[in-house]
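Researcher: I'm preparing a figure for a lab meeting and need a structural model of a single chain. I don't have an experimental structure, so a prediction will have to do for now. The sequence is pasted below. Please return the structure as tokens so I can convert it later.
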Amino acid sequence: MTDFSAPEQPRVGRMAAEQRGRFSLLIAAGVVAVMAFLSWFLAGAPGTNGIDDAAITRAYAENIANGHGFVYNIGGERVEGATSLLWTLILAVPYLLGGNPEIPILSVAALLTVAAIWCGLRIAGRTAGGASSLDGRRAELLSALALCGLPSFFIWSVWSMMEIALWTALILLLLDRLSWLAEASAPLPRRDLPLLLAATALPLTRPEGIAVAAGLGLLAIALRPAVWRPAGLAVLAAAAAFALLALGRLAYFGFPFPNTYYAKVSADRLQNMYDGAKYFISFLTGQPFAEVLVPAWLLLAVVSLWGMLRRPAPGQRTAVLAAAAVFGILFSYVMLGGDHFALWRFYQPVMPVFALPLVLGGLALWRVLQPVPGPVAAGLGLAALLVWISVNAVSYRQERFRVVREFALSARGEAFGTYMNSFSPRPSLGVTAAGGIALTYEGELRDLMGLNWVEMAHANPIKTGFRNHASFDADTFWKHPPDLLPQFHKSGCQRATWTEAAQGAASGVKQLFAQPQFQARYTPVLLEMRGGRCTNAFAANHWLAQAADSRIIAAGWEKVILSGNR
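Model: Understood. Here is the structure written out token by token.
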């Protein structure tokens, strides 16, 4: 294969490249500043506390910072209920420093998002022929404008407090450095420190990071064998990090993967693929323009590969690497079964480069329209940009209720945990929303979804029911019955009429409500709170006898309608 690479830049050229790099960084920072606000505003100002799953990671980080170890309950079992080890350790730093951790966490997420977008702009410029070329600079600018039509990326990366910002930044850094090596002129460096950093950190961020780092590294070597040394070192670094982490997990937790893997991923691979295919199809049909962009990425990869064989040109290797990253992310989560969150959380890492085929197509169209008067061509481009932004914004706005629900769930958990601290004795709580409440409640929590409970996560390897919440096992519940099952995860309280969609054949927690054993040992109650608010709950009879608190109002099973048994 012809080794086509850009000529070595003289000193003046390198200085100009550095200036362009700083300018691209400023553009990335500006995009994040604008879109972070707009994504938050369009979602209905959901809060600054992050989502409930992020609160789980924060709870682990706080326990680590306070010297309790990697545990969900202080003094409880070692369990890795946070998927991202590296993100958990990063979040421990604000808790070590003291004060309100939310501002530092959001600041780190914003900075990582800037880094991810900056790498994405560099990749766009390189794909279009190099940042030093006019097309390259135009590609960077158009890519930045295209990101203004992807608010879902910013709500997930900046505001959710999940590891999305770190995960995306590392993937884009890896892709940026590999594409630079693939396009750079000789002599190539023997090692690339940013590349090694990204490759090492990816498996520490998520288990599938090893597939991303190794897959893209080996592809870079296949596209340009001359990069075998720096790219090969990156692959070895990723493999070593993955192996050492697995050994460390075995020594500390007793399992090679996070507990979330065992709680969420079914041993039934066909079921995973079926659920993952539904997830991918929902993305194709729900994310605006995805049905155009995904085939466009395939076309870009094919055209670039064909061009490398017939007529090599700058940017072709970068295009192939970027396409591999996009399809690798998309189909990895087909195999793993997808997710239940709004706005396709797992697919957000591809968003900084997702519109690249449209950008390249726009540049090609611009060249075709050269005979057209400048104002007319500019007007057509502006109209296309407005359509892109407005269609995406409307779709995002329609999802705001699902977005707000995730933030509100965490806030309700924090408030309810503080409220329950005032009871004596403090009950053990069986919860289905295990994040926000873990930040405030000082008693024992039992995660009925299994994310933070080893025995529950491993009870049923075959998961059936609601995606990522299908690990509940009734037999495990009855081995360790909690004192109280509160329903603070519901936005309202049922006073006059209490209805539960429960039946004995159900796969989740609601199957309990129809069991005679549960009805004999638990009493439906209302927990009265300030401001006339209340929370429905099921209280163990032995705890009710001990608590004797006027805020607990026994409702009786005759007040509960089990609609699933009708």
